[in-house]
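Late entry, evening session. Most of the bench is empty. Finally got around to the prediction I had been postponing all week. Sequence below, unchanged from the version circulated by S.P.
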Amino acid sequence: MAVISYSKEVEAASRFIEYLTSKEGKKIYAEYGWIHKF
């Protein structure tokens, strides 16, 4: 994941990515089977 350079909402996008990679976000990913081990 990354914030694109021409994003109009860089701060909001950055906070969203922080949430998705947080402990809570990872838990949600796991609940839906979206976490894959490589």
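Two things to note before I forget:
Residues 27 and 38 are 18 Å apart (CA to CA).
The chain has a mean pLDDT of 90.
Will write this up properly tomorrow.
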